[in-house]
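Task: sequence in, structure out. Protein: 2-phytyl-1,4-naphtoquinone methyltransferase.
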Amino acid sequence: MNPVTPRPAHSVLRPDLARIASWIEPGSRVLDLGCGDGALLAHLRDHRQVRGAGVELDDTCVIACVRRGVEVIQQNLEDGLALFDDKQFDTVVLSQTLQSMHRTEHILREMARVARFGVVSFPNFGYWPHGWAILRGRMPVTGQMPYQWYNTPNIHLCTLRDFEQLAGELRLDILERATFNEGREVKLFPSWRSTLAVYRFASP
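Result:
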């Protein structure tokens, strides 16, 4: 019998995930959509006593979640969140996945349905080198968006203002915003200096 590899005593979260974790109340119920390897949920369980579950499609990531002891459901987010009841969770998280969703408004409405609060993060297309690349006749390729135009999973790119306008149309009340560039928080001119935006909103 192979020995079971023990869980690490702690793991260091990416700065954006650490910020998300700081916004979540201890002891609350959390749903993480596109949860990846379960790092955020494991951190919330171990450090904030959160009861959490994840939704993930990728086989490798699902296995990683199971190894962390994270509850995970293997499902395509494009199919919606019909498995979950209204306000079943306190917070629902969609981290760096919104830009790859085909039905952006639908997933945001579903997030607002199943939880009291939502957290969304996405690449900021308003980052100034993106505009410079387009002026030179090329689609931008950066650390936050490292794909070429023909193989990118990002189908709905937006700026901070674009997202805030959509949130208003969906009656999502934005409570907090954080912006980052290569892991460092950006507070001065974030609309064009940040590569990643993170928003926390209250459901209608």
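The first strand starts at residue 29 and ends at 33.
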